[in-house]
Amino acid sequence: MAWNDSLLIDPDGFVGKAPLLNSGAWTWITTMFGMPIFSVFAYRAAPRNCPSCSCGTNGNNSKIVGGEEAEIGQYPWMVALYYSNRFICGGTLINDRYVLTAAHCVFGSDRSRFRVKFLMHDRLVPKEDSFERKVSYIMTNWFVNVLVFITNDVALLKLSEPVPLGDTITPICLPPEGDSYAGKEGIVTGWGKRGDGSFPMQLQEVHVPILANEECHNQTQYFRFQINDRMICAGYKDGQKDSCQGDSGGPLHVYDPDANRYVIAGVVSWGFGCAQPGFPGIYARVNRFISWINFNTRDACLCH
Questions:
Q1: Is 304 noted as a catalytic residue in this protein?
Q2: What is the DSSP letter of 96?
C-alpha cells in the first residue's frame, strides 16, 4: 500500500477501498506505508423529509454587545457536554440530530457515558425547559502531529433522538466555504475558566478579533508550522480576553448584521495558557470541514 492509502471498515469488520456507501457506520483509516496514522469515523445516512426552519437566530433577535455573562436564551444552539455526570466541554447544535464539538473532548471515550444538555444557562440551576440527549455515534476527523499540536479538531455527536426545533431552540448556521473571517469580530461562549481562575456556573461570552493566519504567523509567538489553514487564530495579541479551559468544543461565532443571524466560524481547540500575550486562541476552522459535516449528517433536518 502507498503512504496515502485509505481503508474503510464497516461495523461488521469488512475492510476495503472506499466504495459508494449505503446507510451505516464506517471507519476510514489512512495509512503510511501500511501503518495506520489516523482514522476517521464516518456515518452515511439516508436523507429525511424536513419542514423549513431557520438557523442562527434566537427568540429576541438581539445581538450581544459586550459584558461577561451571556443573556439567557441568546445562544439557543449552545450545549453543555457531560461525561459520567461531569461537565467537560461545550458544543454547538448544527441541525436537529447533530452537535459539533472538538475531537479532543471526545476522542477515546465511551459514548454511552456522554450526555448532551440543551437550553442550559446556569449549570447549577437548570431552566425548566432544559433537557438532555444521549449520544448514538461519535464521528471524529482529527490528527495530532509529533509535536502534539492538534489539527482537524472537530467531532460530530449524533444524538439519540432528534431535537424539537422552534423558537426556543434553533441550530447555528454553518459557514460558507472560503470565508477567512479575518478582521471580523468573533464571539466565544462557554463555561470555561475566568481570569481569576474560577469556573462560572452561568454561560459566559467574550468578544475577540479574528486574525488572518499570516498575521498569526508573523505577529504572535506561535511558530509558523503550528498554525495551518484548518485553524483560525483569534484573540488579542497582548492578551486581555480569550477562551480558556472548559470552553473547549464550544463555538466561535460570527454575527451577520445583514442577515441578522450567527454562523459558527470555529470550534474552541487549543492555545498556550489563557489570554497570554503573544498567544491568541486557536480554533478549528469549520468551513474547511463542510463537506465532511454534510456527508455525515445527511439524515438530519437542515435549517437555512
A1: no
A2: S
